[in-house]
């Protein structure tokens, strides 16, 4: 039987992520992070696990968004090219909408390691014209992953979610 994507976000992942975050932020309580992550984990869908991972970063990292974003951004490359990297853009979408410029730049950076296509949609809802203007510039970027974010991020739906 094939493993479900949601199962990539298991106890082992959360222990690994807690260690990676602690490497960047020594005060992080690894045990508490893993305990919080695994509470009723089996009942959560893939998207619920991504949301939980973002909320765990919010809870266990500094309250200062730029500092927490720096930590999340530093850890994201460890998950380069895997679906697990989506926790980082999810963090930005959930907690960075009041700091648009910094957050949009973060999404541009984070898309190199996974995808920020879901996260960018929140910024489009908040300020469609400004976000579309940024994405229009990204559509001409030298990096194909940034161009993918610009094109796929403005699609009204990503089919595999439905």
Oligomer: single chain
Series of secondary-structure elements, N-terminal to C-terminal:
HHHHHHHHH
Task: Specify Rg, calculated over alpha carbons.
Answer: 16 Å
Helix run count? 9
Helix content: 55-70%
The overall strand count is: 0
- What share of the residues does DSSP label as strand, in percent? under 5%
Coarse shape: globular
Structurally, the number of domains stands at: 1
Structural class: mainly alpha
Protein architecture, described:
This protein is an all-alpha fold and 162 residues long. It has one domain (8-161). Helix content is 61%, strand content 0%. It has nine helices and no strands. It has helices at 11-24, 30-38, 46-60, 65-75, 87-95, 100-110, 117-126, 128-138, 144-152. α1 (11-24) crosses α4 (65-75), α3 packs across α5 and α5 (87-95) packs parallel to α7 (117-126). The longest helix is centred in the first third of the chain and has 15 residues, at 46-60. 36% of the residues are buried.
Architecture blueprint of SSEs:
Layout: H1 11-24, H2 30-38, H3 46-60, H4 65-75, H5 87-95, H6 100-110, H7 117-126, H8 128-138, H9 144-152
